[in-house]
Amino acid sequence: MSDRSGTATASRAERKERTRRALVDGTLATIEDRSFASVSLREVTRAAGIVPTAFYRHFASMEDLGVAVVEDSMRMLRRVMRDARRHPSAENARESLGLLVGQIRDHDVQFRFLLRERNGGVPEVRRAIATELRLIVHELVQDLERIPALQDWPTDDLDMVANLIVNTMLAAVVDLLDVRPNSVAERDVVERALAQLRVVMLGMGQWQPRTAIRERGPAARG
Questions:
Q1: How much is the CA Rg of the chain, to the nearest whole Å?
Q2: Collapsing DSSP states into helix, strand and coil, what is residue 43?
Q3: What share of the chain in percent tops pLDDT 70?
Q4: pLDDT at 222 over 50
Q5: Longest C-alpha distance within the chain, in Å?
Q6: What is the pLDDT of residues 76-122, one digit of tens each?
Q7: Which CATH code, of 3.40.190.10, 1.50.10.10, 3.40.50.11030, 1.10.357.10, is assigned to 62-208?
Q8: 205-210 contacts at long range (C-beta below 8 A, 24 or more positions apart)
Q9: Per-residue buried b or exposed e for 156-178, using 16+ beta carbons within 10 Å of the residue's own CB
Q10: What CA–CA distance (Å, rounded) separates 217 from 206?
Q11: pLDDT value of position 100
Q12: Is residue 82 within 8 Å of 135, Cβ to Cβ?
């Protein structure tokens, strides 16, 4: 009896997860070229193949669904950034940009959704995107702290570098979405982003951490 009960519970959980997944996927299919705010609950449930009343078994509101779409879409960007965080180098930057291009081509709708909703639309969705980006920056700061040459850097300086790297990647995403795959324009975007990341890395080598400047005092700065 217990085995059958456990199997039934697992089956219900699996069905619930499949329906939740269908709602997220249905939302992405619906918002391919629209804002999230313009999508209705009825459209989403129709795309997911469920009745509207079943929606509330999975999400408390459309805003709650939007946050789930953000979290799902951000996994692609976080995966690329995790690879980039292993160690900042020109070789790793090129590899990471190549991975980014692949993710964008495979998940075009998700990336367009994130960029479209980042600065407008539903406040809950906008806040969820900002939270996810802050988490990416925070994780990058933690990895930078482990690099011996950066161990004396204050957190504020590491945070500044992390933001520069993340914003460079986001700018590349914007440009890549506007060019054709495997085109000269695409290669130009990648090379420009790589050059920008190299400038950041070169700047890190010359940067004087603000704690060191304070320790030397005004005379040293003068």
A1: 22
A2: helix
A3: 86
A4: no
A5: 81
A6: 788 777 766 555 555 677 888 888 899 899 999 999 999 999 988 89
A7: 1.10.357.10
A8: 207/157, 209/152, 209/153, 209/154, 209/157, 210/154, 210/156, 210/157
A9: ebbbebbbbbbebbbebbebbee
A10: 19
A11: 87
A12: no
Confidence of residue 147 (pLDDT cuts 50, 70, 90): confident
Mean pLDDT score of the chain = 86
Please count the residues of the chain: 222
Q: How far, in Å, are 40, 49, 140, 146, 199 from residue 20 at the CA level?
A: 16, 11, 31, 38, 43
CATH 1.10.357.10 residue spans of the chain: 62-208
The two three-digit tokens of residue 29, written as one number: 């299919």
4-13: which pairs have CB atoms within 8 A and are 24 or more residues apart? none
Q: Please tell me the predicted confidence (pLDDT) of residue 155.
A: 94
Q: What are residue 25's phi and psi, to 5 degrees?
A: -65, -40
Residue environment code for 107-134, b if the CB has 16+ CB neighbours within 10 A, otherwise e: bebbbbbbebbeeebbebbbebbeebbe
> Could you tell me the CATH superfamily of domain 1-59?
Homeodomain-like (1.10.10.60)
